[in-house]
Write a structure and sequence with these properties.
By secondary structure, the chain is an alpha+beta fold. It has 3 helices and 9 strands.
Length: 138
Amino acid sequence: MCVFIDLVDGVKNAQQINVYTDGDMYVCNSGENAFKDIVAAWTEMTKGAHEMPAYGVSLDRETKKAKSCGVWVEFVFGKKLEYNGMPFENLLINVQKSFHGFNIIRYTSKYGYDGRCFYLDILNKDMSNFYDILLNIK
């Protein structure tokens, strides 16, 4: 059974948030101040965002390799959810200061990170504030 969720506001329902910085992982659990700070920064960044067709698909092996470099954030829900007919258990995002839009990579226990992505255009904003918050949560 899948629970349907709103893509942007749904991150508030995550059980934990994993922040990857050059392969090192930091875990923030729901209820912690760092978790609340990340969700608040996400909410501000995505306010007024437009969903667009994704630019590509994710390949599990390539995505696992890529998240060992740079800054990534992963919202972990602990259950199967669905948005626009696409199931996921986690949502992974490569965070780069200059991005004005980004892919949201879906993870399922059955397929890993393989499959279609979501894409958000954050319009006249960039990811710099969100990026800085992620780097300074430890």
